[in-house]
């Protein structure tokens, strides 16, 4: 699904303080496959919680991603006051794309395996009623999105992290796994990917700065974390009009052992202190690599490098605490 062109009237350096938009009507978009099939049950619980608060509520369920995106787009263009998403980061991404440019704010009712959008916005993760209460109160924040564009002109919006190389391969493996659930699934997927670890020769451009190096991965963060709390870009801000890039160079010896040792520190952000890791920050990032590498955004595989990643500042409104 291609992302519309961003309205240039939005500028970087914006305020993220937000406004109060108490919704009278909420459209709940449910991913029935979220949380291993519990998505519909969680959505029903959310609808009941909204109605108990006197909020007029409509539930829409997409049979697949394409139908969910289509129905979310129609809802965002209707007279609904809010689009509340029951699902994980991938479902939220579809809703953000669908609502892009419509002015309809997005509510998040976490029901995924990672829930990093919720983590970065301080939205309750294991409490449906609390998430509904947050939306019902109506306080919104303006946030940045990222956009990836491929050579054929196809583009996609993302909210959390765009991963390439090793970490995108981890995402691909984790998505294909039915067990275990939650954050541990990404950890196990990473350990399995270490078996076939290889580096690629990357050319990286961040605004006007460039570098060439053999890298294990390059991750572009609009938020601090992905994969259920892995702080891959711990200094990123969802409101600063910039994207953070974290890259890991190929270890000279004992590559698997070195990466295996560094990997656990991603959960605390201490990986940034390791000599093989470097960071950059900018508005536009261009990545080429040989051989090519997978690209995942918000946990969804969307293509391969080369690609251009850019920040789309102040482009979404979400219900969240101040």
Outline of the structure:
The protein has helices at 34-37, 39-52, 65-76, 89-99, 116-121, 128-137, 166-176, 183-193, 255-262, and strands spanning 19-20, 25-30, 56-61, 82-87, 106-110, 139-149, 155-158, 161-165, 200-206, 209-221, 243-249, 277-282, 284-290, 294-297, 300-304, 307-319. It is of the alpha+beta class and 322 residues long. Strands 1, 6, 7, 8, 9, 10, 11, 12, 13, 14, 15 and 16 form a twelve-stranded antiparallel β-sheet that branches.
Structure description:
The protein contains 9 helices and 16 strands. The longest helix is centred in the first third of the chain and has 14 residues, at 39-52. It is globular, with a radius of gyration of 19 Å. Strands 1, 6, 7, 8, 9, 10, 11, 12, 13, 14, 15 and 16 form a 12-stranded antiparallel sheet that branches. Strands 3-2-4-5 form a 4-stranded parallel sheet, sandwiched between helices. With 322 residues, it is of the alpha+beta class. The model is unreliable at 1-15 (pLDDT under 50). A hairpin with a 2-residue loop joins strand 14 and strand 15 (300-304).
Main β-sheet description: 12 strands, antiparallel
- Please give the radius of gyration in angstroms: 19 Å
* Helix/strand structural class: alpha+beta
Distance between the termini: 31 Å
Number of strands: 16
Q: Would you list the SSEs in sequence order as H and E? A: EEHHEHEHEHHEEEHHEEEHEEEEE
Strand percent estimate: 25-35%
Summed over residues and divided by their number, the pLDDT gives a mean of: 86
Low-confidence stretches: 1-15
Helix content: 25-40%
Question: How large is the count of helical segments?
Answer: 9
Shape: globular
């Amino acid at each position: 699904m291609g992302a519309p062109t961003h309205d240039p009237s939005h500028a970087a350096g914006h305020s993220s303080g937000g406004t109060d938009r108490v919704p009278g009507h909420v459209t709940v978009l449910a991913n029935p496959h979220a949380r291993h099939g519990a998505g519909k049950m969680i959505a029903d619980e959310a609808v009941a919680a909204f109605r108990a608060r006197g909020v007029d509520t409509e539930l829409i369920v997409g049979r697949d991603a394409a139908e969910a995106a289509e129905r979310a787009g129609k809802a965002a263009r209707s007279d609904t006051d809010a689009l509340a998403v029951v699902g994980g980061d991938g479902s939220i991404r579809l809703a953000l794309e669908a609502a892009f440019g419509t002015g309809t704010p997005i509510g998040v009712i976490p029901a995924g395996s990672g829930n990093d959008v919720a983590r970065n916005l301080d939205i309750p993760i294991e409490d449906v009623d609390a998430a509904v209460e947050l939306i019902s109160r109506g306080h919104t924040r303006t946030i940045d999105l990222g956009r990836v564009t491929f050579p054929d002109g196809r583009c996609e919006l993302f909210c959390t992290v765009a991963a390439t190389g090793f970490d995108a391969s981890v995402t691909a493996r984790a998505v294909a796994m039915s067990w275990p659930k939650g954050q541990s699934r990404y950890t196990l997927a990473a350990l399995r990917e270490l078996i076939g670890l290889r580096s690629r020769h990357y050319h990286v451009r961040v605004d006007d700065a460039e570098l060439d190096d053999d890298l294990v991965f390059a991750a572009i963060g609009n938020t601090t974390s992905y994969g259920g709390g892995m702080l891959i870009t711990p200094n990123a801000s969802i409101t600063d009009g910039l994207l953070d890039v974290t890259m890991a160079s190929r270890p000279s010896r004992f590559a698997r052992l070195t990466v295996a040792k560094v990997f656990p520190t991603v959960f605390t952000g201490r990986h940034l202190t390791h000599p093989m890791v470097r960071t950059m920050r900018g508005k536009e990032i261009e990545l080429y690599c040989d051989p090519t590498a997978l690209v995942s955004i918000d946990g969804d595989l969307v293509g391969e490098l080369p690609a251009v990643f850019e920040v789309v500042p102040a482009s979404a409104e979400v219900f969240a605490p101040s």
